[in-house]
Design a protein that fits this description.
The complex is a heterodimer of chains A (682) and B (566). With 682 residues, chain A is an alpha/beta fold. Helices cover 38% and strands 13% of the residues of chain A. Chain A has a 5-stranded mixed sheet with strand order 2-1-3-4-5. Chain A is globular and about 100 Å long. In chain B, a hairpin with a 6-residue loop joins strand 7 (165-167) and strand 8. Chain B has helices at residues 17-23, 76-91, 107-115, 150-158, 193-197, 209-217, 230-239, 244-257, 266-287, 299-308, 322-332, 334-337, 355-363, 372-381, 404-407, 414-428, 470-479, 508-524, 534-544, 550-556; strands at 2-4, 7-9, 48-51, 58-59, 70-72, 138-140, 165-167, 174-176, 203-205, 221-227, 262-265, 293-294, 344-351, 368-371, 447-454, 457-465, 486-490. In chain B, strands 2-1-5-3-4 form a 5-stranded mixed sheet, with helices on one face. The N and C termini of chain B lie far apart (53 Å).
Chain lengths: 682, 566
């Protein structure tokens, strides 16, 4: 672990240690020394901070090794860079940084030398990294095909290179929480301090009362970024007003939504910001102990957090008497086993207490009676990461970043059938289409966007026609979606919305904690019904009727689960079904009434047929069929029994004569031209 | 005042809406909440009510009543939702009601009928968990479990054993002994509190009914029975007889009709236990032996010590429980008193307890143990119901007589009270005043600690009612000053009156009634002192000699061993 060079005393007169803290430490590091006047010390400090700001000495190579970078081969790229450096006698230091958010263009490498600003290169793979290095180090060609842009710091030599923030993907974004992600070295407290970390904490601890901190956060209008959107300041106020000898603050880093990875990126890219947010929050409510409940599936985030906590302790930013404020606070990491429900606040409490992660009924709310019965505040990673900037830059500044009734920014994880995937941070209230088309770059070539799924299993699907909606807590709710934690999955015309609803229902069915009856028993029935829709009806009339009846129960089931479930996860479990039913009812009707999947993605509804003129009776298809749906004697024309066919298409692939083809849709003999049946209103 | 369905209802501070409504005669259906549950789980979602000014429906089991609250309990919306939840519970429940031992008294079936479930709407998959028959006392069928969590709540929060819990997620969620493959190798102490509270057929005792029926028909065996002190106090609820005495005689007559040849009263060996246990206590007090001494009547407690607190083994009285003393006497002594015709004795005990099944298998002597519930079931197999008109036949000598002291064994504090009466006599030669009533030992408090001057020594006593507080109490009890001498522990809250073999019910008022019936017998009985039991005295003269004699050690005492999980 790196130890902080910044916090090391400049001379014998600087007396700060973790056990004997100085209240002016943070100011001193940036503009010090404050306690004595000595030009040498001043130069020494200025030199240290600028070195920390730069990231190190000499030629620096910053590699994006967040989980997304690693998945794209960042570890192998680093190996190749090392061997390149060794082979060519290049003097350069490799620094691992977090993700800048542009996951589509991973792996990123920034190059910083004495003669150039920090330049960002992307689309690097283990295969082409040598080409890039040759361009830079051998040919001296910095403006090669990998170059994406430069970070702010320009010395005039490369002013023709686009600023990173002017790159289309970043242009409409407003980086607040993510401002240091991908820039600072997340394993080094110094680079974080140089980027302004803990200034807000120092300000809060030395100049504000806990009540003032609560008021500030409340006035800024910060709402929980984890899903429900409760006013953070209000929660803190309740905990502050509850009298108790012990209080706790818990950072909820149990990010479990499919398609959401904001919290992971923040923890991997800038763990100090989260710790600072916790420190301020703890001070605001009077908590002396904090927990970070992070899923064990985030090994890198955990590693960076551990490192960050250790460094903060050594620098006296965590522990006893933080910054000589007489306020003590320490943080423990608790690893979650990956149960989705453990993102629910009362389930986290149970899990930290050592019990089974199951929610309990509220009230009492955790802010009144939480962990071990003591007042406890639970905030999501992103919420806490917002706190330092609010305290440091002020309420008005924060409120200024708004495009609607809510303030601040929200990070979304953009994925799916879209040009640019990645993490985007935008002002709350930005129209959805700006995210999708301006930042995301719109649909993949040759496709058109059909819907956007927002909010994961608790959210809903917003159709193309509604893309004007501002991305805001209330307007999303009106459309049956929710901000949720920030997953944003884009779907084009090849996605079947019934299938999407089935996917999320399967997820909820498997992840329901099993405590309350409606969620446990209801979701499995909803999933069964949705599954039956994506398969051909088989068997006798009665079974066909059951499939038809099932859909009649879907909405009632959804309503019951929504109204009666114990926790937020159950209450929102039916949202994917309700919202797809609301906007894509015709797709459901096509599945039920015509046994047809308009998107062509439901395998179970596909039907194959044999062209009798081409079939040579070779028996190959019969052998390949996994469901014994094909009959036919050798040298005779074969037939497919529709009821048995599971639509896998193995026969069509196997046929040497190309005699097997997929029927355009539905069952043979049915009227497939009727686009809008209109005779059933579900 | 709160308003429930436009009716003004008084509420007591801290009371939930469910409790207030119950007192007001408004029945809000519910499954997971039960009387005495310390933390309502709010998991069944059936007790939901509409509350004015609250947007969401609230579970009345967790909703604390507040002045001016306006609640509606049976609106069409709520009725529809409740019915739907029960429909969903039934959708994964096995369709085998006719084969289920709870077919006549299933809370789930009752609820379904009450809420108007009339249609099977979800023909989906069912649960397919293996049935756990590993325990000598209990059988668990997770497929019938509706996961209301009562058993988990009672096991953790009331009994503080925590042998079972929820495992798995989603539809695969089930209740089981966690890392152990079966209850027999888990931390379960077989107290059966879980099954007494189970609303469905998911939990039941390991039935001995068939074995008893087979034995009754076997010409080579002679079937005799013993009846525990709390059993007649409970069967009155079933039979409607006037008193415990009547009940015993009716039971004796009825059992004879189906082939039992002798019926004994376990109250007799309760008195015998007192003779042995008190002598042991006095020995320990005099010789400074391991004190405090704990009672050993409750097999759940004994298993608890062997599993969780083996260091306490020297502190537990070496006396067998009354069931096992009777079992030993029936096998060793009784055949010499009667003409058996060369037949083997088959000894059946009728107990309010499931752990007794385990104890009988562990120690032998008793061939079959019937719970109070199974006794009724056994008679029903023969087409017989217990009624006040049933033929009354006195119990059989030499084990027919029980004193008032022996009778109150069936409730918490009873052993203590009986023991103190005899100890006082043995140490001072005098009787306690007021017939030996010791109010400090009575009542349903979880811990009762008191001192008594016996002769010129002060003895300190404690009564633990239910295992819930045992963990927190044990250490302090052992180290307490003044040091304790004698501690009674009853595994089940209320003692045997609330035992795991008693009728399925969540109603604690029933337990109180059973206790008062036993105390009434004690109050009215002519002999309220175990040492005055004539038949016990006769037994000492003819067989045992004196308490703690060699032969009584062989027949009436036992040893303990540390046991392990897994």
């Amino acid at each position: 672990m790196k130890s902080s060079q910044l916090a090391t005393p400049c001379c014998g007169r600087c007396w700060h240690t973790a056990t004997n803290p100085c209240s002016q430490l943070i100011e001193c590091l940036n503009d010090g020394p404050l306690c004595h006047t000595d030009e040498r010390c001043r130069d020494e400090r200025a030199g240290r901070i600028s070195l920390a700001r730069r990231g190190g000495e000499g030629v620096l190579l910053f590699i994006g090794t967040g989980t997304c970078g690693l998945a794209n081969g960042a570890a192998r790229i680093i190996e190749k860079i090392r061997s390149f450096i060794a082979a060519n006698g290049v003097n350069a230091t490799i620094i691992e940084v977090g993700c800048v958010g542009y996951c589509q263009r991973e792996v990123f490498m920034d190059f910083l030398s004495a003669s150039s600003p920090r330049l960002s290169y992307c689309d690097i793979t283990p295969e082409n990294v040598n080409e890039l290095l040759t361009e830079i180090f051998i040919k001296g060609n910095l403006k090669n095909r990998f170059l994406l842009g430069r970070w702010d710091v320009a010395d005039g030599t490369h002013s023709d290179v686009t600023l990173l923030k002017d790159v289309p993907f970043f242009k409409r974004q407003k980086k607040v929480v993510l401002e240091n992600c991908g820039y600072i070295d997340p394993s080094s407290l110094d680079t974080a301090l140089a980027a302004g970390a803990f200034k807000a904490a120092a300000k809060a601890l030395s100049t504000m009362t806990p009540s003032e901190v609560c008021e500030t956060v409340l006035a800024a209008g910060l709402r929980g970024r984890g899903g429900a959107g409760f006013l953070t300041g209000q929660k803190w106020r309740v905990a502050l007003d509850t009298v108790s000898a012990e209080k706790y603050i818990i950072c909820n880093a149990d990010e479990g939504d499919p398609g959401a990875f904001m919290d992971r990126a923040i923890l991997e890219g800038d763990p100090f910001r989260v710790l600072e947010g916790m420190l301020i929050g703890a001070y605001a409510i009077g908590a002396t102990k904090g927990y970070i409940y992070c899923r064990a599936e985030y090994p890198l985030a955990l590693e960076r957090l551990h490192g960050a906590i250790d460094q903060c302790r050594k620098a006296g930013l965590l522990g006893h008497n933080v910054l000589d404020s007489l306020f003590s606070f320490d943080v423990t990491i608790k690893q979650g086993a990956g149960a989705f429900v453990c993102g629910e606040e009362t389930a986290i409490l149970a899990s930290i207490e050592g019990g089974r992660g199951m929610p309990r009924s509220r009230p009492p709310y955790p802010a009144v009676s939480g962990l071990h019965g003591k007042p406890t505040i639970l905030n999501n990673v992103e919420t806490l990461a917002n706190v330092p900037v609010i305290v440091e830059r002020g309420v008005e500044w924060f409120k200024g970043i708004s495009m609607g009734p809510s303030t601040g920014t929200k990070v979304f994880a953009l994925s799916g059938a879209i040009q640019n995937t990645g993490l985007v941070e935008v002002p709350i209230g930005i129209p959805l289409k700006e995210i999708i088309y301006d930042i995301g770059g719109g649909a993949l070539p040759g496709h058109r966007i059909k819907a956007v799924q927002i909010g994961g299993p608790s959210g809903g699907c917003i159709p193309e026609e509604q893309m004007d909606v501002p991305v805001d807590y209330s307007s999303l709710l009106q459309l049956g979606a929710m901000m949720g934690s920030g997953g944003m999955v884009v779907m084009d015309e090849t996605s079947c919305l019934v299938d999407v609803a089935k996917f999320f229902m399967e997820f909820i069915r498997n992840e329901s904690c099993g405590k309350c009856a409606p969620c446990r028993e209801g979701t499995i029935r909803m999933h069964e019904i949705l599954s039956s829709l994506t398969e051909k009806p088989v068997g006798f009339e009665i079974q066909r009727l059951e499939r038809f009846r099932g859909i009649l129960h879907l909405e009632e089931l959804a309503q019951t689960i929504k109204e009666t479930s114990l926790c937020g996860l159950g209450q929102s479990a039916a949202n994917p079904v309700l919202s797809t039913l609301r906007f894509f009812r015709k797709e459901y009707e096509a599945h039920i009434l015509e046994n047809r999947c308009p998107a062509g993605s439901c395998q179970g509804l596909k039907t194959f047929s044999v062209n009798a003129e081409l079939c040579s009776g070779c028996n190959l298809c019969l052998k390949k069929c996994p469901s014994e749906a094909i009959i036919g004697e050798r040298k005779q024309v074969h037939y497919i029994i529709t009821d048995r066919c599971i639509g896998c298409g193995a026969c069509a692939d196997a046929c040497p004569k190309k005699a097997i083809f997929e029927l355009p849709s539905g069952l043979p003999g049915q009227d497939r031209n009727n686009e809008n049946p209109g005779y059933l209103s579900l | 005042m709160i308003t429930i369905n436009d009716k003004q209802v008084e509420w007591i501070s801290g009371e939930t809406v469910l409790q207030a409504a119950k007192r007001a005669g408004i029945d809000i259906p519910h499954l997971c909440a039960f009387e005495g549950s310390p933390y309502p789980q709010a998991s069944c979602r059936i007790c939901l009510v509409e509350v004015e000014s609250m947007p969401r429906l609230q579970t009345s089991c967790t909703l604390i009543a507040r002045d001016g609250m306006a609640v509606r309990t049976h609106t069409p919306r709520i009725q529809r939702l409740r019915r739907h939840i029960v429909e969903l519970l039934l959708a994964s429940h096995p369709d085998d009601c006719c084969f289920c031992h709870r077919s006549r008294n299933c809370e789930l079936a009752e609820l379904a009928s009450k809420l108007g479930v009339r249609e099977r709407r979800y023909p989906g998959i069912k649960k397919t968990h293996p049935i756990d028959i590993s325990s000598p006392s209990l059988v668990r069928d997770p497929n019938k479990c509706i996961l209301c969590g009562r058993c988990v709540a009672v096991c953790h929060d009331i009994q503080a054993v925590g042998a079972i819990d929820f495992t798995g997620r989603g539809f695969e969620t089930r209740i089981d002994p966690g890392f152990y493959p079966g209850l027999n190798v888990s931390g379960c102490i077989f107290c059966g509190q879980c099954l007494r509270l189970c609303p469905t057929g998911a939990l039941t005792e390991k039935s001995h009914v068939e074995e008893v029926i087979k034995a009754l028909a076997d010409p080579k065996v002679m079937v005799v029975a013993q009846v525990a002190p709390a059993v007649p106090a409970t069967l009155i609820e079933e039979a409607g007889t006037a008193s415990i005495g009547d009940m015993l005689e009716v039971l004796s007559g009825t059992l004879r009709r189906i082939g039992f040849e002798a019926i004994f009263d376990t109250t007799f060996t309760a008195d015998l236990t007192i003779m042995e246990e008190v002598s042991e206590l006095i020995n320990r007090v005099k010789s400074g032996g391991p004190l405090p001494m704990f009672t050993s009547c409750s097999p759940g407690w004994v298993r608890y010590v062997e599993l969780y607190r083996p260091v306490l083994i020297p502190h537990v009285s070496t006396c067998k429980s009354p069931q096992q003393m009777m079992g030993a006497l029936i096998k060793e002594f009784y055949p010499k008193q009667v003409e058996t015709g060369g037949r083997r004795i088959y000894s059946v005990s009728i107990m309010p307890c499931t752990a007794k099944k385990y104890e009988a298998r562990d120690l032998g002597d008793v061939d079959a143990v019937l719970t109070t519930r199974e006794t009724v079931e056994l008679l029903a197999r023969f087409g017989i119901k217990l009624t006040p008109q049933g033929e009354k036949v006195p119990l059989d000598v030499p084990f027919a007589e029980g004193t008032g002291a022996g009778r109150i064994f069936g409730g918490t504090g009873g052993v203590m009270e009986a023991a103190i009466r005899t100890a006082h006599r043995l140490l001072t030669g005098k009787e306690l005043p007021r017939g030996g009533k010791i109010s400090e030992a009575r009542g349903l408090g979880k811990l009762k600690v008191f001192s008594l001057n016996v002769g010129n020594t002060t003895l300190n006593f404690a009564v633990i009612n239910g295992l819930g507080e045992v963990e927190t109490l044990l250490d302090s009890l052992i180290q307490q000053t003044p040091p304790l001498h004698f501690v009674e522990v009853m595994t089940c809250p209320g003692g045997c009156a609330g035992g795991g073999g008693q009728p399925y019910s969540t109603d604690t008022a029933l337990i109180k009634k059973r206790l008062s019936r036993m105390y009434e017998v004690d109050r009215k009985s002519q002999t309220r002192l175990s040492h005055e039991n004539k038949q016990v005295q006769a037994l000492y003269q003819s067989l045992l000699g004196r308490p703690l004699s060699d032969i009584s050690h062989r027949l009436l005492h036992r040893s303990y061993t540390q046991r392990y999980f897994g």
